[in-house]
Amino acid sequence: MVSRAGCLGVDFDTVCGYFLVLGFLSASKVGVLVRFLLLAPSVAFSNSGLLFSASSVVFSELCGHIDGSALAPQGVEALSKWEIKDAWVMTWILSSVEPHLVLNLKPYKTTTAIWNYLNTVYNQDNFARRFQLEYEMANFTQGSLSIEEYFSGFQTLWADYSDIVYANVPVAALSAVQAVHATSKRDQFLMKLRRDLEIARSNLMNCHPVPSLDACLSELLCEE
Predict the structure, then answer these.
(1) Does 46 share its domain with 100?
(2) Residues facing residue 123 across a β-bridge
(3) Per-residue pLDDT for 15 more than 80?
């Protein structure tokens, strides 16, 4: 079992927050990227003939390719190993950013160069990102989308928003906040359905108790 502690001596969620402050990575992709940095070294490097354990030391080294603290060495063999690691992290960043950004990154040949460019152009603090997500959530409706398409977009916005909000909630209060959010999330999902689903929505809202979001989705998929 790999420890959730990372290169900065903090837990997984805090490391995720380090990446989340940059708006070009969604919360779901941040989670994938950080898990990759934590879990992948023992697998991928062993396939390259470089056997490492997935530890905070390795994670620290990989993060160094992002923040520039892991400088390219002078020796041929050491440089070759450094380039493998740099290409590895670079590939995962490229696969994590939005597709339309990839072409802009082609001129940059190292992980640090790519990260610095993205940080300069797209950096947002958590307040700005939270405000943006709240605005998008307030204006997101089903419109011409199918139930599945609407639910998928709705879930993505809520997942990104929740990751930012929950990062500042004490552990003791987290379950209570999540319960309130679950109710609000379900109600907002139902409120923003198309008018032709008004009867189905009213039936769901008049149930005692009102079904969970997943149960509501199941009923609506049958109605569509």
Answers:
(1) yes
(2) 22
(3) no
Taking residue 38's Cβ as centre, other Cβ atoms within 10 Å add up to 22
Q: Return the C-alpha torsion angle 77, 57, 85, 113, nearest 10.
A: -110
- Does 103 share its domain with 166? no
Distances (CA, A) of 188 to 20, 62, 192: 25, 41, 6
Domain that residue 86 falls in: 12-122
CB-based contact 6:36 (threshold 8 Å): no
User: Residue 169: is it exposed, middle or buried by C-beta count within 10 angstroms (0-12/13-18/19+)?
Assistant: middle
Are the beta carbons of 179 and 148 closer than 8 angstroms? no
For residues 114 and 219, what is the distance between their CA atoms, to the nearest angstrom?
45
Band the pLDDT of 125: cuts 50, 70, 90: low
**Residue 161 one-letter amino acid:** Y
Give the integer Cα–Cα distance in Å for 167 and 163: 6
Same domain, 113 and 160: no
Return the pLDDT at 2.
31
- Residue keyed to tokens 């493998």: 84
Q: What is the pLDDT of residue 59?
A: 56
Contact of 53 with 41, CB cutoff 8 Å:
yes
**Using CA atoms, how far apart are residues 109 and 94, in angstroms rounded to an integer?**
12
Amino acid at 85: K
User: Which residue reads 């001129």 in tokens?
Assistant: 107
Total of domains in the chain: 2
